Recover the amino acids of this structure.
């Protein structure tokens, strides 16, 4: 069952024109809409299903710098600042708490990995530090796990995915943005080699600039235009518990479970060491490009071939603007939670912190992530399509950076000085 997203009043009608059209009402597209609206630039967000119905409400809510590739840390640092100011900016508590994140290591090899990451970010002045096993016990007491140690970043944190995107959407609307749900964008409308609008299932909307923030659908959207974006789907299952006392505020990621406290007093939990990889044609087509980064994690993937393969094959890869597009056929991507994996996560966690044995499982769900070969998103212009900017491929960690990513996409689209150096996110790094 999908997490219930805080509702947002949206517009029934598709405007005939605007300045910036945004494809996708996930947290990245909505943040970009807020930034544009705050700057007084007319903007319309078009969402094929429900706002935040896909990754943006299903994620775990971790906001972290720790464990990111060095190139991605500056964006995460800017995002921290923006998260800290978000409640005041949107007038609502979205559950942002800078309560710290800890990763645990069972073996010396895992400790070496954490040490290696810490070395790689030495010049970035982060507050991350290695922990001994007694220090782990002090920070998160009552555990029975045997740890080689851990790594801890006090300034990392969390927020509530079911609240954040909605609060941003409401604020964007107050600033003048228009949001239309149940309105799939089929393709771009071009004139003289320049983007001039969006062709939607409800007709055409003229605009000067387009931001494609379509999450895992951006690859298919661009593929129809003959542009390659390498992203592969991986499915993460999660559960939430009923309220539980005594486990504190720090979010903890062990090799085979993770937990973080929720605003409702429960915890969001996942089997951190396992993701489902239901094979699609794309895995066979571009999977080899992932080998360098996936080599260490391949054991964590539960690879299977089944219904997903056939369903994906049946969705068009090329279509005409007059035809019903794949985006109308799948309004909300809603994979089933892997019951075995969430049970495994809970078992592993209860062994390490028996207090969790007192918590009832209130709900489980899954979400499909859009993973690039280097796990960095693409944020920047699509040079083959003047007027089109892309912000997608957040690789399972885009909730944390979304506030900065949306702002960066707007800076690039409007030609302003970028909020951070955008070179690591260029699309042409894949060509
Ligand atoms: C289970 C899970 C756990 C995760 N945990 C974390 C975490 O703890 N921390 C973290 O930082 N990140 C996490 N992530 C990743 C994070 O959720 C994503 O990176 C982030 O939400 C991406 O936001 P988005 O706006 O790019 O994409 P999405 O939220 O997927 O939004 C894209 C939207 O575009 C719409 N769309 C697509 N094509 C069209 C079209 N043609 N017309 C109209 N609409 C269209 C879709 O319907 C969708 O609503 C997790 C993800 C999952 C699935």
């Amino acid at each position: 069952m999908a997490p219930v997203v805080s509702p947002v009043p949206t517009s029934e009608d598709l405007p005939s024109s605007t300045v910036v059209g945004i494809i996708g009402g996930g947290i990245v597209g909505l943040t970009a809409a807020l930034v544009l609206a705050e700057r007084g630039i007319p903007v319309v967000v078009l969402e094929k299903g429900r706002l935040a119905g896909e990754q943006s409400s299903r994620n775990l809510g971790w906001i972290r710098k720790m464990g990111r590739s060095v190139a991605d840390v500056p964006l995460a640092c800017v995002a921290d600042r923006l998260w800290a100011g978000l409640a005041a900016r949107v007038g609502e508590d979205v559950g942002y708490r800078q309560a710290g994140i800890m990763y645990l290591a069972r073996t010396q090899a895992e400790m070496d990995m954490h040490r290696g990451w810490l070395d790689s970010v030495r010049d970035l002045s982060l507050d991350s530090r290695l922990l001994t096993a007694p220090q782990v016990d002090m920070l998160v007491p009552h555990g029975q796990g045997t740890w080689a140690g851990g790594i801890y970043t006090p300034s990392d944190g969390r927020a509530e995915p079911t609240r954040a995107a909605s609060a941003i959407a409401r604020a964007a609307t107050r600033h003048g943005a228009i949001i239309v749900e149940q309105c799939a964008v089929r393709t771009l409308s071009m004139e003289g080699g320049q983007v001039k609008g969006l062709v939607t299932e409800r007709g055409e909307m003229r605009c000067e600039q387009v931001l494609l923030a379509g999450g895992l659908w951006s690859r298919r959207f661009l593929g129809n235009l003959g542009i390659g974006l390498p992203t592969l789907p991986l499915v993460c299952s999660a559960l939430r518990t009923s309220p539980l006392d005594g486990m504190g505020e720090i979010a903890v990621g062990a090799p085979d479970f993770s937990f973080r406290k929720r605003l409702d007093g429960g915890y969001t939990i996942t089997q951190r060491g396992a993701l489902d990889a239901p094979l699609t044609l794309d895995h066979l087509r571009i999977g080899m490009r992932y080998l360098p980064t996936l080599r260490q994690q391949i054991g964590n993937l539960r690879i299977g071939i089944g219904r997903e393969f056939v369903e994906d094959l049946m969705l068009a890869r090329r279509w005409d603007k007059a035809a019903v597009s794949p985006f109308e056929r799948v309004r909300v991507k809603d994979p089933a939670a892997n019951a075995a994996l969430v049970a495994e996560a809970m078992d592993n966690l209860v062994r390490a912190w028996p207090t969790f044995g007192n918590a009832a499982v209130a709900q489980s769900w899954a979400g499909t992530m859009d993973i690039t070969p280097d796990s960095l998103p693409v944020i920047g212009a699509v040079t083959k399509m003047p007027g089109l900017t892309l912000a997608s491929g957040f690789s399972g960690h885009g909730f944390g950076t979304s506030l900065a990513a949306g702002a960066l996409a707007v800076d690039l689209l409007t030609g302003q000085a970028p909020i951070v150096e955008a070179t690591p996110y260029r699309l042409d790094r894949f060509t």
